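Hi everyone,

Forwarding the result from last night's run.
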Amino acid sequence: MMENRFEIQGNSLIIHLPKEVDHMVTDEIRRDSDDIIRKKYIRTITFDFSGTAFMDSSGIGLIMGRYRMLGMRGDCIQATGVNSYIEKLLHLSGVYKFVEICGEV
């Protein structure tokens, strides 16, 4: 597990994603982030893709699951450090409708 994967700033949770976001990694992130969301008052989640080169469909499921967990509000999920590959994936999957793609964290 990567140290400092999760960062809490006020009521925001920043998740620094690893180089490869696959089923094994998303299970761990899902478990840990759900734990944080249950224990703390989190209103927004930012997924930091700046170190990510690969993501499969489980990454999309991870994002959608956190979106549902935060009550499906329009402004609750953000993505930063998105390269062209990840951006294309977010668009093809339709997730971009729910995720605000920002510059840096």
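The chain has three helices and seven strands.

Cheers,
N.
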